[in-house]
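Quick one - inputs below.
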Amino acid sequence: MAKAKLHFSSGVSSFLIANTGTLLILLVWWVVTALQLINPVLLPSPVATFVALWEGMAGGGLLLDFWLTLYRSLYAFVIAAVLGIPIGILLGANENLYRSFEFLIDFFRSTPATAMFPLFLVVFGIGDFSKVAVAAFAGGLVIFFNVAYGVMNTRKTRIMAARIMGTPRWRVFFDVIFFETLPQTFIGLRTAISLTLVVIIVAEMFIGSTNGMGQRIIDAQQVFDMPDMYASIIATGIMGYGLNQLFLLTENKFIHWKGR
Amino acid sequence: MKVNYLEHQTKVNPHQTGLDISVLGLTKYLDGKPLYEDFDLHISSQKITCIFGPNGCGKSTLLNMISGLVPIDSGQLSFGGKPRSEVSLGYVFQNYRDALFPWLRAIQNIEYPLLSAGFSRLKRRARVEELIHQFNVGFDLSRYPYELSGGQQQLVSIMRALATRPHVLFLDEPFSALDYEATLAIRDKLQDVFVETGVTIVMISHDLEEAVYLADHILLLTKRPTRIAERVVFNASRPRTLETLSDPEFVRIKAHSLEVFRREAS
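Output:
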């Protein structure tokens, strides 16, 4: 009995430790709105916000916009990965080739992808695909240079160990270098999925979009539908957090040796 | 015991024994300075040769050159008349953590060279079973390397290096990252396997006592440009035990080697 109680209380306390910050923010938010310290038009109560979130997700337009943004982000991410991984491996394995592209790589890495919107609009036209293309470009770069660095920084001992066993070069590549690169590749993939989401949201806000979470947030703000705006922001946050967690889980499962 | 093994080996693979390693006129420059200049070396097959020398004299580079990992500037390398490409080598690195494949289980690590050499699943299993028996492995090989202790990981490295029954086993300071207890245990297992199989062993050591304890031949190297200061022979019978350490001949050889090392390293 005492043991069960102890378990129960330690369960509660670990829940509290993990969520104190969240609960505190919700409490402050609730107190501020209850005391009307901020104009309720600008800051709706947490209850109103979560009701808007629930209703939007249960049957309102929020769910559709949510799927559209998720679809575009994943679309961009897949293009980014399909292009970024092979190019990263190619350039990472040929240091001279990498050196000759180094300036370009560093230049575009330092250029905000959003600054390239007009260029992509000219190339791909005003449509869904130009948004996806910009996001894929930004995500592809991140994946590309993470993979390239991963390939360049493989530990030489394992490659030497495989070579000395008489393993042919192509096989060393698949059996050793590929696995050596995986942890860094996953860092690239995880950064890229967050980045494609950011770029898609911004693109939806500013490049003539009629749907998607970015458009929804801007629209809600324009008509002062604050509960819907906050609900949309939270929904977008959930999407980003969910994607990140999904990648982290996959990473921890497949790259079990990471950091050991 | 040894004779039995040789017969068995001859049946399995006629090329496994009797490959002396000879190095003739080896020259290697590192950063424009001579590391080896016209260097000759002979390593006898079916013996344990330990290489001992001052820091930076290029012991690891020597092993890496013989094994083909590092190119030589000039000179000749031969394995009983054969070129490197016809000889199979096992190599155990100092840092087992960087040498084992952490994405494979311990047993898959041991099987890897067999897999890469195209052995069937059945043959791989049989060979691993044999190694497990030979090394008297008492821990779970289905775990990943990072789940094992340092000593266990290095044991897995040695088993992996021996999996294909190589002509020669190279070990580059295999015990220097291990604690004393693990060192003693693995050192004796290595000796047992040597007694049982007669595989040629070349080991770099940073511990003179360990070198003399294991070796038939101790190669004492000078500082750069590196020469062989002396090739010391220690003929004590095997298996050598803790009692060997207080044997007068052991003490004499060790003292002599230390004297040569002091003279040449300073």
